[in-house]
Design brief:
Elements lengths: L2 H6 L2 E5 L10 H12 L4 E5 L3 E2 L3 H5 L18 E4 L2 E2 L3 H23 L4 E5 L13 E8 L10 H17 L2 E4 L2 H7 L6 E3 L6 H4 L1 H4 L13 E6 L9 H10 L3 E6 L6 H8 L4 E5 L6 H5 L4 E4 L5 H4 L4 H9 L3 E4 L12 E3 L2 H15 L3 E2 L10 E2 L2 H10 L4 H12 L9
Helix pairs in contact: 2-16, 9-14, 13-15
């Protein structure tokens, strides 16, 4: 296929690790921007199969299974598909996979696509590729699941699938230096595209005009966290120790909760720990407007080394003080972020950051002027850094990989 023909392929089959819902992550943001820039383009978003063989799977069904639907309405040409698994893989893998292929192929046929790009973020279905008429295969890596805490037989399959994708993909996209270093030698063509921020809603002058959600009107200061609570990411022991020592400070967590029931219980037993769960992407700035400081109490491990946390970019855009463990991304910004190299240091730095936050004031803009106030040099520097890390710039890079003509970012 020639480069000219490739440019004309403006349909993307996106096989994702997540469903398209209102809790947006990197790829929902990128896809939405691509569709806004290229109104003629179409994306078929295929989420992970829903388990119909257990009660939790049935409860999770909030959209038609196996049929196309448009989660964003007619605002963009985004089509979503929720495949399903009638049996556990241990006894019905072949049937589940056959149904997955049939479901995706039928959707492509219904859309009338003659050629399209296949973009894979869920490598576990790699051995079902390629689909008929796919012109390019992109492997998108946002987490190194080969370092995840899963049973050995699952880990072996994850590593095998990752290896297959690296060798067979036409283009590989990674989000962190660690992923680039570890995957580079096994891929034909690899690109580092970091995460970013939709800048304006997170800026201090925007946050000061944002209505604070009622559940965030807590007594005392707030140390806030945005993102998934995951056993391989969140340092539960660190949170328990810090919150136990700093009872006058609220530790607030906004995001999907994937912790065990036991760890969730241990955290919420503390009166100043609040786990509010997932909130829609567009509401995150409102929740962050109530934060006095932003925190990232992550474990430091081979798995977290592969991450490029979106929260870092959003935190920085607010200008608020940040306290983090020495995890990937954050530790490279020691001049702008309080980095804790041990547990005791994290707790003490939370106190330092809270005091720093009291010196920062922002007034709402008036008469078209920017907001005024007393921002520290650190706060201004954090905002300035975030200004160079926008999703617009990341999507510019994605357009090049797709070989799509550059288009202006939507206003």
């Amino acid at each position: 296929m020639t480069a000219i023909q490739e440019r004309q392929s403006e349909q993307i089959l996106f096989i994702s690790l997540e469903h398209w819902d209102n809790v947006w992550r990197r790829n929902q943001i990128i896809c939405a921007q691509l569709l806004a820039r290229h109104p003629q383009a179409e994306i078929l978003w295929v989420g992970p199969p829903t388990d119909l063989w257990n009660i939790q799977g049935i409860k999770s069904v909030n959209a038609p299974l196996g049929t196309l639907f448009r989660p964003a309405g007619k605002e963009m040409k985004l089509y979503a598909l929720k495949p399903f698994k009638p049996l556990p893989n241990v006894v019905g893998r072949k049937l589940n996979e056959r149904l997955f292929v049939q479901c995706v192929s039928a959707a492509i046929k219904k859309l009338g696509w003659k050629n399209y790009i296949t973009w894979v973020n869920n490598q576990s279905y790699c051995h079902l590729l390629p689909y008929e008429n796919s012109t390019k295969l992109i492997y998108d890596i946002t987490d190194d699941w080969s370092h995840a805490s899963v049973p050995p037989h699952i880990l072996a399959q994850v590593k095998a699938d990752d290896e297959w994708m690296l060798h067979n993909a036409d283009e590989v996209i990674v989000c962190s230096e660690d992923l680039l270093k570890n995957k580079r030698d096994r891929s034909k063509s690899i690109h580092l595209i970091r995460n970013g921020v939709k800048l304006k809603p997170y800026l201090p002058e925007s946050l000061v005009q944002t209505a604070t959600p009622s559940e965030m009107k807590l007594e005392g200061s707030i140390a806030g966290y945005i993102g998934t609570l995951h056993e391989d990411r969140l340092d539960v022991e660190l949170v328990i120790e810090s919150a136990g020592k700093l009872r006058s400070i609220n530790f607030v967590f906004i995001g999907p909760n994937s912790l065990t029931a036991e760890n969730t219980r241990r955290l919420t037993e503390l009166p100043n720990v609040h786990i509010f769960g997932a909130r829609p992407y567009e509401q995150l700035p409102a929740y962050m407007s109530a934060f006095d400081i932003c925190i990232t109490p992550h474990v430091v491990s081979p798995f977290t080394e592969s991450l490029d946390p979106i929260k870092m970019y959003e935190y920085m855009a607010t200008g608020k003080p940040i306290v983090s463990t020495a995890c990937a991304g954050f530790r490279d910004l020691r001049d702008l972020i309080h980095i804790a190299d041990n547990t005791g240091r994290f707790t003490s730095l939370v106190t330092v950051a809270i005091e720093e936050s009291k010196q920062i004031t922002v007034n709402a803009p008036s008469n078209g002027d920017a907001g005024t106030g007393n921002a520290s040099a650190g706060s201004r520097a954090r905002v300035a850094w975030a200004g160079e890390q926008t999703w617009d710039k990341r999507v510019d890079a994605v357009e090049q990989i797709l070989n799509w003509n550059p288009a202006a970012a939507p206003v």
